[in-house]
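User: Please run a holo structure prediction.
Assistant: Happy to. Please share the sequence and the ligand.
User: Here you go; the ligand is nicotinamide-adenine-dinucleotide.
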Amino acid sequence: MERVLHFIDGAFVPSEDGRTFDNVNPATGERIGTVAEGGRAEIDKAVRAARRAFRSWSRTTAQERAAILHRIANLIEENLEELALLETRDTGKPLSLAKSLDIPRSAYNFRFFADFVKGLSTETFEMEGVALNYALRRPVGVAGLISPWNLPLFLLTWKVAPCLAAGNTCVIKPAELTPMTATKLAEICKQAGVPDGVVNVVHGFGPDAAGQFLTEHEDVDLISLTGETTTGKAVMRSAASTLKRLSFELGGKNPNIVFADCDFEDAIATTVRSSFVNQGEVCLCGSRIYVERPLYDRFVEALVDRARKLRIGDPLDPQTDVGSLISEEHLQRVDGFVRRAVEQGGRVLTGGKRPEHLARGAFYEPTVIVDVDETCEITRQEVFGPVVTVQPFDTEEEVIRLANDTHYGLSATLWTSNLKRAHRVAGELEAGVIWVNTWFLRDLRTPFGGMKQSGIGREGGVHSFEFFTELKNVCIKL
Ligand code: NAD
């Protein structure tokens, strides 16, 4: 992986003009290799290959595709060690996390959709004595799949698996900061028997580059993007002229609401995880914590104490809880949010700086900020780092208002032992995914996605297939 290439029509190739960019390990700051930088020519070649391959791939049976998807899952599992290491070197995340979460879940994404596609059904309506209507489900065509850097293979496979299961072909544009596991996935697909052209990978940047060219391409039918809300807006604009079908999983500023009647140990332990796992670089992290006033002091004290105990350092060390942020540039962005929060009256109880014992790498201490309100930038903008704010609240109505006072609506978590309140508040919160007394627990059959500016559409189970298939109705006069 010292020289990461595109994968087009079944072959690894450099860019036509030979352009590359550097790949850097954020935990060491070292350049670990080069990545081919794709432009219009590579996107066009990849889209043409995907279109050619669509003719036969779309005519395979669900059983045939499912068998190939299971082989991909087997190969991901067989290559778990290597994939986890590549993911850690690209992202700076703890290797233990890549091994226990990112890579196993990537394999499971393929297994899940392989099994699900075999049970997909459609509707039949009989107009008695007049006509019989039945719907046929068909793949849509060529999909552009654009993925982010925080859970690179996990989130990419969450798109590739249903896309292929449904009979589409694709051009993948991985995040420029994390090109390696997508490239390894291409190799695995070939080994598993995916025909040439069905899966293509073009590396490169977003705006005015490979990402945008993919979204503009007139022969791409679908775009599935996971990324920032601003990126969603840009992609919607560039996809408009060819009226593509869009699925967006975008940013979040998720509330984590703790009522005084919660199971304290459960709430605090899970809150530490939902705040700082993967360095807080998870779209579902609960970055705005609201605690009912009687519990506030105790909760803040415990959160600060546990945040300080998290071991931050070498991602390859199995004892490490918190690795490096994705890049030095991102660290500066995260730190900028913290600095401005302090200028606006916020108090940093722990963190807010680089750890003193680490001389190099984009490491940033888990950070807890209090004395902020809903007018502060830190409670409104997505930081996407190990930074949380904690605010007290007095009433259910107040916390619902605060939680919903955002243009994001990805997820929300609430902690209470009052069943009626749990249902009541869950019903009022404006978020696509709501957890009660848990976090990150997912049944892949359920709808996943954001409300408001956190996304468009839902992924998971049949919802992924609603996006990746067309229904056509056949009406037969009797
Ligand atoms: P990003 O938006 O910067 O980049 C995501 C991808 O989009 C990259 O591959 C990038 O190259 C590409 N891109 C950027 N601009 C583009 C353009 N104009 N046209 C086409 N492609 C373009 O996001 P990121 O920094 O990689 O990831 C972090 C963001 O992703 C956060 O906002 C996070 O909340 C969000 N995210 C959301 C979910 C979810 O499920 N809702 C999951 C993970 C991450």
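Residues 62 and 214 are 27 Å apart (CA to CA).
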